[in-house]
Amino acid sequence: MKYFLLTLGCQMNMSDSERVASVLEAAGCTRVEKEEDANIIGILACSVRQKAIDKVYSKISKWNRWKNKKSLITFISGCILPADKEKFLKLFDIVFGMPELPQLPKMLGEYGITNPLSLSVVPETDSEEIKMFWNVKPKYNSKFEAFIPIQNGCNKFCTYCAVPYTRGREISRSSEEILSEVKRLAQEGYKTITLLGQNVNSYGLDKKGDEILFPELLEKVGQIGEEVDSEFWVYFTSPHPMDMTTDIFHIMAKYDCLGKQIHFPIQSGDEKVLIKMNRKHSLERYRESMTELRRILPQATVFTDIIVGFTDETEEQFENTRKAMHEFKYNMAYIAMYSPRPGAASYRWEDTVPLEEKKKRFALLSDDLSENTYAYNKSQVGKTLKVLVREKDRKAGYLSGHTEGKLVIRFESDNQNLIGQIINLKITNAAKFSLEGELV
User: Fold this and answer.
1) How many angstroms separate the CA atoms of 351 and 300, rounded?
2) Beta-carbon neighbour count of residue 294 at 10 Å?
């Protein structure tokens, strides 16, 4: 049997898709690059974004029409709200939560697909279910970049967010398993490893003393970096300002393998909006963390997430977010125009900011961001930086990659053997969201 897998959404879904691929191939299936060539088509959905859900409906409509001409089984998993799941049950052959992944071969077996894993062990509890999922060795999409989930779910219940309803409450993975996976990947020559969770820095809190907490986990990862005779960078995403502590910054500064980049979501620069979002942290708390980060790790780049046009956001409140953008001088910001998601608390509220106003605020904030990024990028010209070469660039005769701070950079070279290697580049030119360099 041939399978095709479409992944939508965040890095967590990307990581999950690697485990889906591993299970399917262990069951005797072969991956294809074109959906037209597949007998099994799966999609990892994202109920957090309406555009992603719209794409699901478009795809399944097309795939179901194909069933008139050929034998085809469809399945869907990922981050799915209960309301969306109910609708998908009528459209897809198989709908399952990601912790149920080890049971997928058995589900396929019920559709007549004989495979060696169809008689899987059925877990007794949700906790056991997610542990079985984590025990699935992923089929990595890259030979030099890997994701490692360290927790699943979220306890924060931000009013705009559907994740607690799609992935459930926080469950931390065994630190022994995480560290074993980090060490194995480092020994195999992987160059970047990203620790994933909805709130990575609340890792271990659900275990109430039976597991180490995030700073100690990060310390042990750093120690692996000192033991392994290979250069690599470890990142984590995303931390929550409520759980951020300065010892995390000190540990990042202590170990070379801990990449000097941090994704630190602010969402809004206005106190009242943060309260309405139920972010559980104040702007002052966020500012204190940023001040400590800049003091302890002055070389670190900082990325963030911001929502514009949240329910009842006034012009003055938006201007406070613009002030925060200039104050914290982010190297990248993922800006989203607010859209209500069924299941999230804010869905009950009227979406009071018109779309045109959201677009205007999005454009203004994007301009503010580019002003900051361009100033920072220009300051890098003349420096020699370490760069992970990732792929051929769109510009002919060039390769591209990212710095340790995850800044995008291109350089002239036809040597594709450099892809997957960490090299030194001298920065020769800067643009708003990228750099250009030359081999040293």
Assistant:
1) 37
2) 15
Instruction: Round to whole Å and give the CA distance between 373 and 306.
Output: 16
CA distance 387 to 322: 31
Rounded to whole angstroms, the Cα distance separating 424 from 440 reads 6
How far separated are the first and last CA of the chain, in Å rounded?
Answer: 48
- Which pLDDT tens digit goes with each residue over 44-67? 998 777 788 889 999 999 999 999
Contact 94, 104 (CB under 8 A): yes
For 383-423, give the DSSP string: -EEEEEEEEE-SSTTEEEEEETT--EEEEE---GGGTT-EE
pLDDT, tens only, 209-226: 899 999 999 999 999 999
Count CB atoms within 10 A of the CB of residue 298. 9
The β-bridge partners of 42 are 5, 75
Residue 393 has pLDDT above 70, yes or no: yes
In angstroms, the Cα distances linking 102 to 19, 74, 107, 167 are 9, 17, 10, 17
DSSP state of 155: S
CA dihedral for 378, 384, 388, 391, sign (positive or negative): positive
**Phi/psi of residue 426, nearest 5 degrees:** -90, 125
The CA-based angle 136-139-140, given to 5 degrees, is 120
Position 114 confidence tier, pLDDT thresholds 50, 70, 90: low
Q: DSSP letter string over 106-145?
A: HHHHTTT---TTSSPPPPSSHHHHHHHHHTSPP--S-SSE
Classified as helix, coil or strand, 426 is strand
For the stretch 255-284, pLDDT in tens is 999 999 999 999 999 999 999 999 999 999
d(CA 114, CA 27): 9
Paired tokens of 278:
């139920």
**Token representation of residue 427:** 């920065």
